[in-house]
């Protein structure tokens, strides 16, 4: 089966551009916007040669993994548009639950104590974990088109058949988890789940519902965390995400801190120190 949109996505006007190999689905999406594309366009590939992760990191997509980017044309309010990263995480988690059978209780990530009910969890701000290991990364990139409109590329990379070995955090793939799902099947489910969660988001008006759904799948909630912010490390307890989807931590002094951007570490890693 080649890449296909779910009927629900096609009915809502989403379109699909599929490739065998790309440099970067995000790069192509932003190029399409500059060429005049009006958005609601999925760019997908099973191989990506120049993928990017957060903070300029490399994201490797060998043959058989999924690289997918949704291009949307949004208004000037990029702060609200940025919360679509949480929509993307929820959509992917929903898709994974639909295509991976026999989901089971997951051990908390990075050695944290306790268990959780979701095998696929969401790690703030934009990762999806499976049994505590990184399965997917999500990267949002934007580019102003004129005084009123911006292009937003929502990139979603999933380790379907392979995962990186030389990374400083646990990683996994669907194949390593015993799943037989391929990239095409996962994308079909993702395009369907995106439509459901996008309707719930409702141009940002439904953000509180998205936030509550996200928290119900949040990795490390209520546990010890360490967050690296601009070279400094803040340690404490992960309390919630606030109405702006900032990471809320009660630090070791008892003070509440709200973090807009940073790298989060859980459990034993948080206790030992976040490298």
How would you characterize the overall build of this protein?
The protein folds into two domains: 209 residues, BirA Bifunctional Protein, domain 2 (2-Layer Sandwich); 49 residues, SH3 type barrels, CATH 2.30.30. The chain has a seven-stranded mixed sheet, sandwiched between helices. The chain has a five-stranded antiparallel sheet with strand order 13-12-11-10-14. The chain is built from seven helices and 14 strands. The chain is globular, with a radius of gyration of 18 Å. The chain is α+β, with helices and mostly antiparallel strands. The C terminus is likely disordered. Strand 11 and strand 12 form a beta hairpin. 25% of the residues lie in helices and 29% in strands. The N and C termini lie far apart (43 Å). It is an enzyme of class 6 (ligase). Its EC number is 6.3.4.15. InterPro entries: aa-tRNA-synth_II/BPL/LPL, Biotin_CoA_COase_ligase, BPL_C, BPL_LPL_catalytic, Transcriptional_repressor_C. This is biotin--[biotin carboxyl-carrier protein] ligase. It comes from Mesorhizobium zhangyense.
């Amino acid at each position: 089966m080649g890449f296909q949109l779910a009927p629900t996505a096609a009915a809502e006007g989403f379109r699909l551009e599929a490739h065998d190999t790309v440099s970067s689905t995000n790069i192509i999406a932003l190029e399409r916007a500059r060429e005049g594309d009006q958005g609601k366009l999925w760019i997908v590939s099973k191989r990506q040669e120049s993928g990017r992760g957060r903070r300029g990191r490399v994201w490797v997509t060998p043959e058989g993994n999924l690289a997918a980017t949704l291009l949307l044309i949004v208004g000037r309010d990029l702060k609200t548009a940025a919360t679509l990263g949480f929509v993307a995480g929820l959509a992917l988690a929903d898709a994974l639950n639909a295509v991976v059978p026999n989901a089971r209780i997951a051990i908390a990530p990075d050695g944290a104590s306790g268990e959780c009910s979701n095998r696929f969890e969401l790690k703030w701000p934009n990762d999806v974990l499976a049994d505590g290991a990184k399965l997917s990364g999500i990267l949002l990139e934007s580019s102003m088109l004129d005084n009123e409109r911006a292009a937003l590329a929502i990139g979603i990379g999933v380790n379907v058949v392979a995962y990186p070995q030389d990374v400083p955090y646990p990683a996994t793939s669907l194949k390593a988890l015993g799943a037989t799902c391929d990239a095409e099947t996962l994308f079909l489910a993702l395009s369907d789940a995106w439509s459901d969660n996008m309707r719930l988001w409702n141009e940002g008006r439904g953000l509180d519902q998205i936030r509550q759904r996200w928290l119900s799948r949040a990795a490390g909630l209520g546990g010890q965390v360490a967050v690296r912010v601009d070279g400094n490390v803040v340690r404490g307890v992960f309390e919630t995400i606030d109405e702006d989807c900032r990471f809320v931590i009660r630090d070791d002094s008892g003070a509440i801190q709200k973090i807009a951007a940073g790298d989060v570490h859980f459990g034993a890693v948080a206790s030992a120190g976040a490298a």
